[in-house]
Automatic annotation (TrEMBL):
Keywords linked to the UniProt accession: Oxidoreductase, Thiamine biosynthesis
Organism name: Kineobactrum salinum
Biological process (GO), any one: thiamine biosynthetic process
InterPro entries associated with the record: FAD-dep_OxRdtase, FAD/NAD-bd_sf, Gly_oxidase_ThiO
Residues of the FAD dependent oxidoreductase domain: 2-326
One GO cellular component, as annotated: cytoplasm
Pathway: Cofactor biosynthesis; thiamine diphosphate biosynthesis
Protein's UniProt name: Glycine oxidase ThiO
Gene: thiO
GO molecular function, one term: glycine oxidase activity
EC id: 1.4.3.19
Amino acid sequence: MGRVLACYLLRAGHRVTLFDRDPVDSGAAAAYTAAGMLAPWAELEQSEMSVFRLGLRSLQLWPELLRELGRDVDFHQRGSLVVAHAADAGELVHFRRRLAAKLTAADQLRDLDAAALEQLEPALTDVFDRALWLPGEAWLDGRRTMAALAGHLQAAGVAWQPDTAVLGLEPGALTTERGRQRFDSVIDCRGLGARDDIPGLRGVRGELLWLHAPRLRLQRPVRLLHPRYRLYLVPRQDNILVLGATQLESDDTGPVTVRSALELLSAAYSMHSELGEARLVHSEANCRPALADNQPAIVATPGLIRVNGLFRHGFLLAPALAQDVIEHLHRDAAGNRPAGTDNEVMQA
């Protein structure tokens, strides 16, 4: 959120200082763990319409932002597929009904029979004879995107202060180990780092496995519906498939547990026999910042704006929320000082 917002602030003509508790090229932020799915339709099953609408806006904004970054982040917009085993066929029917009930038009929900699935994703027809295609969805590589954002911001002259934890925030000022510094505006994008300042902010743990599967070629993300969990496979470069997703009410960022690994791998193997020969090359767990209603929030006061609670939708929502934050900032500027004279500060 902080890096995307910094790009939009620069574009709007502001000078930006970015305080980051992590190094520039790595860190503990949830963005480094995320699978990078931009999937407002699939997420609508369990999210609110406000998240869906923000996601649609961001889907339109991402291509423009990526052109501005000028670097390959493995972005694709070929839609995603939702499947279920024959024994769980009712899950797919119910999933589609829940989405259709929330949409004013269901033109972004495409039912595929075996022949249509064969044309779109032939590897899946060994196991599945039907699927739901959500053609508007996209995905990107979160780590590549973080690196591209960092490169762009540094080249554009952002005053980046890495390895610098923020110890305190107030309107127009923040405190680090180097002391108190003043700015026209402070924007807090610290995620779980802001827990002491945002009542009800909690961590929701997610666990991912990276599989190297050179003999299984998927062209788009695939979600498997199951009565107990929702699993996804997201293709990345170099024949990597990102496998998730557990969702646990916990702020534990320790390694992936044996139980989660067994459940994820067993479910993945049920999707295609080739995954039995895949190599497990990486495992990772992290916590997403979430509020009580699992919706993002922007809290704006003169000189201080907080944006948090992106939950599992960080990459999906960041561009649209950045636009909204800037609107708050400019309204503040119009009411308190001449517009266009602000220095903004972000903490990633």
